[in-house]
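FW: tagging you since you asked about this chain on Friday. Here's the raw sequence from the shared folder, copied in full. Didn't touch anything.
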Amino acid sequence: MLTLEHVDVFYGNAPALHDLSVALEPGQIVALVGRNGAGKSTTLRTLCGLLPCRRGIRMMDGVDVTGFGPEDLNRAGVAFVPEDRQIFPTLTVDENLRMAQVVRRNGDWTIARVFELFPRLAERRNALGQSLSGGEQQMLSIARALLCCPTYLLLDEPTEGLAPLVVAMMVDAIREISNSGVGLALVEQNFKVPSALANRFVVLESGRIAWEGNKEEFDRKQGEVESLITA
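HL: got it, structure written out here
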Protein backbone atom coordinates (compact mmCIF):
# COMPACT_ATOMS: atom_id res chain seq x y z
CA MET A 1 0.00 0.00 0.00
CA LEU A 2 1.18 3.52 -0.87
CA THR A 3 -0.04 6.14 1.59
CA LEU A 4 0.21 9.73 2.69
CA GLU A 5 -0.58 10.12 6.38
CA HIS A 6 -1.54 13.54 7.78
CA VAL A 7 0.64 15.29 5.24
CA ASP A 8 1.19 19.02 4.84
CA VAL A 9 2.84 20.19 1.60
CA PHE A 10 3.97 23.69 0.66
CA TYR A 11 5.05 25.49 -2.49
CA GLY A 12 7.62 27.79 -0.94
CA ASN A 13 5.70 29.46 1.89
CA ALA A 14 2.30 28.79 0.35
CA PRO A 15 0.40 25.81 1.80
CA ALA A 16 -0.91 23.36 -0.80
CA LEU A 17 -2.04 20.25 1.13
CA HIS A 18 -3.39 20.26 4.68
CA ASP A 19 -3.43 17.19 6.95
CA LEU A 20 -4.03 14.98 3.91
CA SER A 21 -4.30 11.21 4.23
CA VAL A 22 -4.81 8.99 1.16
CA ALA A 23 -4.11 5.34 0.44
CA LEU A 24 -3.61 3.33 -2.74
CA GLU A 25 -3.61 -0.47 -2.86
CA PRO A 26 -2.30 -2.74 -5.64
CA GLY A 27 -5.04 -3.44 -8.19
CA GLN A 28 -7.13 -0.49 -6.99
CA ILE A 29 -8.03 2.67 -8.91
CA VAL A 30 -8.35 5.76 -6.72
CA ALA A 31 -9.75 8.87 -8.41
CA LEU A 32 -8.62 12.24 -7.07
CA VAL A 33 -11.24 14.75 -8.16
CA GLY A 34 -12.00 18.40 -7.51
CA ARG A 35 -11.96 21.83 -9.06
CA ASN A 36 -8.83 23.38 -10.57
CA GLY A 37 -6.35 24.22 -7.83
CA ALA A 38 -7.87 21.76 -5.35
CA GLY A 39 -4.57 19.91 -4.87
CA LYS A 40 -5.05 16.87 -7.09
CA SER A 41 -1.80 17.08 -9.06
CA THR A 42 0.04 18.17 -5.93
CA THR A 43 -1.10 14.95 -4.26
CA LEU A 44 0.29 12.86 -7.13
CA ARG A 45 3.57 14.78 -7.06
CA THR A 46 3.83 14.16 -3.32
CA LEU A 47 3.09 10.46 -3.69
CA CYS A 48 5.91 10.07 -6.23
CA GLY A 49 8.43 12.15 -4.26
CA LEU A 50 8.60 15.24 -6.45
CA LEU A 51 7.32 17.31 -3.51
CA PRO A 52 8.51 16.83 0.09
CA CYS A 53 6.23 16.44 3.07
CA ARG A 54 6.52 19.40 5.44
CA ARG A 55 4.60 17.37 8.02
CA GLY A 56 3.30 13.80 8.10
CA ILE A 57 4.73 10.68 6.49
CA ARG A 58 4.71 8.78 3.21
CA MET A 59 4.59 4.99 3.54
CA MET A 60 5.04 2.25 0.97
CA ASP A 61 4.30 -1.38 1.79
CA GLY A 62 4.96 -0.81 5.48
CA VAL A 63 8.20 1.14 4.98
CA ASP A 64 8.59 4.83 5.81
CA VAL A 65 9.67 6.44 2.53
CA THR A 66 9.07 10.05 3.57
CA GLY A 67 12.67 10.95 2.78
CA PHE A 68 12.75 9.21 -0.61
CA GLY A 69 13.09 11.30 -3.75
CA PRO A 70 11.43 10.47 -7.09
CA GLU A 71 14.32 8.30 -8.32
CA ASP A 72 14.28 6.18 -5.15
CA LEU A 73 10.51 5.80 -5.26
CA ASN A 74 10.60 4.89 -8.95
CA ARG A 75 13.10 2.14 -8.24
CA ALA A 76 10.87 0.98 -5.38
CA GLY A 77 7.87 0.71 -7.68
CA VAL A 78 6.15 4.11 -8.07
CA ALA A 79 5.77 5.51 -11.61
CA PHE A 80 4.34 8.92 -12.49
CA VAL A 81 2.86 10.01 -15.83
CA PRO A 82 2.72 13.83 -15.78
CA GLU A 83 0.12 15.92 -17.52
CA ASP A 84 2.65 17.20 -20.08
CA ARG A 85 3.80 13.61 -20.87
CA GLN A 86 7.53 14.52 -21.11
CA ILE A 87 8.45 12.11 -23.87
CA PHE A 88 11.74 12.61 -25.72
CA PRO A 89 10.68 14.42 -28.92
CA THR A 90 13.80 13.62 -30.98
CA LEU A 91 13.85 9.91 -30.10
CA THR A 92 11.71 7.29 -31.79
CA VAL A 93 8.93 5.44 -30.01
CA ASP A 94 11.20 2.43 -29.70
CA GLU A 95 14.06 4.52 -28.31
CA ASN A 96 11.76 6.22 -25.79
CA LEU A 97 10.67 2.82 -24.55
CA ARG A 98 14.20 1.44 -24.33
CA MET A 99 15.28 4.46 -22.30
CA ALA A 100 12.67 3.50 -19.68
CA GLN A 101 14.30 0.13 -19.20
CA VAL A 102 17.43 1.70 -17.72
CA VAL A 103 15.79 1.63 -14.27
CA ARG A 104 13.72 -1.48 -14.92
CA ARG A 105 12.57 -3.56 -11.95
CA ASN A 106 11.72 -7.24 -12.06
CA GLY A 107 8.26 -7.65 -13.51
CA ASP A 108 6.09 -8.72 -16.41
CA TRP A 109 5.93 -5.50 -18.42
CA THR A 110 8.00 -5.71 -21.60
CA ILE A 111 8.08 -3.74 -24.82
CA ALA A 112 6.15 -6.55 -26.50
CA ARG A 113 3.47 -6.36 -23.81
CA VAL A 114 3.02 -2.59 -24.01
CA PHE A 115 2.71 -2.96 -27.78
CA GLU A 116 -0.15 -5.41 -27.11
CA LEU A 117 -1.75 -2.85 -24.80
CA PHE A 118 -1.22 -0.03 -27.32
CA PRO A 119 -1.03 -1.56 -30.84
CA ARG A 120 -0.77 1.91 -32.37
CA LEU A 121 2.68 2.29 -30.77
CA ALA A 122 3.87 -0.85 -32.51
CA GLU A 123 2.76 0.62 -35.82
CA ARG A 124 4.60 3.86 -35.02
CA ARG A 125 7.67 2.38 -33.33
CA ASN A 126 10.09 4.10 -35.73
CA ALA A 127 8.37 7.50 -35.61
CA LEU A 128 9.91 10.39 -33.67
CA GLY A 129 8.14 11.46 -30.50
CA GLN A 130 7.54 14.95 -31.89
CA SER A 131 5.63 13.52 -34.85
CA LEU A 132 3.11 11.62 -32.72
CA SER A 133 -0.48 12.76 -32.19
CA GLY A 134 -1.59 13.73 -28.69
CA GLY A 135 -3.16 10.34 -28.14
CA GLU A 136 -0.06 8.51 -29.33
CA GLN A 137 2.12 10.62 -27.05
CA GLN A 138 -0.10 9.74 -24.10
CA MET A 139 0.09 6.06 -24.97
CA LEU A 140 3.87 6.33 -25.16
CA SER A 141 4.11 8.12 -21.82
CA ILE A 142 2.03 5.44 -20.08
CA ALA A 143 3.87 2.61 -21.86
CA ARG A 144 7.21 4.07 -20.79
CA ALA A 145 6.05 4.19 -17.16
CA LEU A 146 4.85 0.59 -17.32
CA LEU A 147 8.28 -0.58 -18.47
CA CYS A 148 9.54 0.38 -15.00
CA CYS A 149 7.26 -2.47 -13.82
CA PRO A 150 5.55 -0.33 -11.17
CA THR A 151 3.42 -1.52 -8.30
CA TYR A 152 1.76 1.91 -8.27
CA LEU A 153 1.08 4.10 -11.30
CA LEU A 154 0.08 7.76 -10.94
CA LEU A 155 -1.74 9.29 -13.92
CA ASP A 156 -2.25 13.06 -14.24
CA GLU A 157 -4.96 13.96 -16.78
CA PRO A 158 -4.39 10.96 -19.10
CA THR A 159 -7.29 11.83 -21.44
CA GLU A 160 -6.92 15.61 -21.58
CA GLY A 161 -7.41 16.94 -25.11
CA LEU A 162 -8.00 13.52 -26.64
CA ALA A 163 -10.74 12.60 -29.12
CA PRO A 164 -13.64 10.55 -27.71
CA LEU A 165 -12.54 7.37 -29.52
CA VAL A 166 -9.04 7.68 -28.05
CA VAL A 167 -10.49 8.37 -24.61
CA ALA A 168 -12.45 5.11 -24.84
CA MET A 169 -9.27 3.26 -25.81
CA MET A 170 -7.44 4.84 -22.87
CA VAL A 171 -10.18 3.81 -20.44
CA ASP A 172 -9.88 0.20 -21.64
CA ALA A 173 -6.09 0.32 -21.28
CA ILE A 174 -6.26 1.74 -17.73
CA ARG A 175 -8.73 -0.96 -16.75
CA GLU A 176 -6.42 -3.64 -18.16
CA ILE A 177 -3.45 -2.18 -16.25
CA SER A 178 -5.46 -2.29 -13.03
CA ASN A 179 -6.53 -5.87 -13.70
CA SER A 180 -2.84 -6.80 -13.92
CA GLY A 181 -2.47 -5.84 -10.24
CA VAL A 182 -1.07 -2.33 -10.56
CA GLY A 183 -2.56 0.27 -8.22
CA LEU A 184 -3.54 3.49 -10.00
CA ALA A 185 -4.13 6.99 -8.70
CA LEU A 186 -6.01 8.95 -11.33
CA VAL A 187 -6.48 12.70 -11.74
CA GLU A 188 -8.94 13.47 -14.51
CA GLN A 189 -11.12 16.48 -15.29
CA ASN A 190 -13.35 14.43 -17.60
CA PHE A 191 -15.49 13.02 -14.79
CA LYS A 192 -16.86 10.25 -17.01
CA VAL A 193 -13.43 8.58 -16.93
CA PRO A 194 -13.06 8.11 -13.15
CA SER A 195 -16.78 7.33 -12.92
CA ALA A 196 -16.21 4.38 -15.26
CA LEU A 197 -12.99 3.17 -13.63
CA ALA A 198 -12.48 4.05 -9.98
CA ASN A 199 -13.00 1.79 -6.97
CA ARG A 200 -12.56 4.72 -4.61
CA PHE A 201 -13.06 8.49 -4.89
CA VAL A 202 -11.30 11.27 -2.99
CA VAL A 203 -12.73 14.76 -3.48
CA LEU A 204 -10.25 17.54 -2.74
CA GLU A 205 -11.06 21.14 -1.95
CA SER A 206 -8.34 23.70 -1.19
CA GLY A 207 -5.85 20.96 -0.37
CA ARG A 208 -8.16 19.14 2.03
CA ILE A 209 -10.40 16.11 1.65
CA ALA A 210 -14.01 17.24 1.25
CA TRP A 211 -15.45 13.76 0.70
CA GLU A 212 -14.21 10.22 0.14
CA GLY A 213 -15.85 6.89 -0.39
CA ASN A 214 -15.96 3.69 -2.40
CA LYS A 215 -17.78 3.13 -5.69
CA GLU A 216 -21.02 2.09 -3.99
CA GLU A 217 -21.03 5.17 -1.77
CA PHE A 218 -20.21 7.37 -4.74
CA ASP A 219 -23.10 5.93 -6.75
CA ARG A 220 -25.50 6.72 -3.89
CA LYS A 221 -24.20 10.28 -3.49
CA GLN A 222 -23.13 11.10 -7.03
CA GLY A 223 -25.12 14.32 -7.19
CA GLU A 224 -23.68 15.53 -3.90
CA VAL A 225 -20.13 14.66 -4.95
CA GLU A 226 -20.46 16.31 -8.35
CA SER A 227 -21.73 19.48 -6.67
CA LEU A 228 -18.47 19.66 -4.73
CA ILE A 229 -16.54 19.49 -8.00
CA THR A 230 -18.58 21.83 -10.15
CA ALA A 231 -19.88 24.40 -7.63
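FW: The longest strand covers residues 14-24.
HL: agreed, and The radius of gyration is 17 Å.
FW: great, closing this out.
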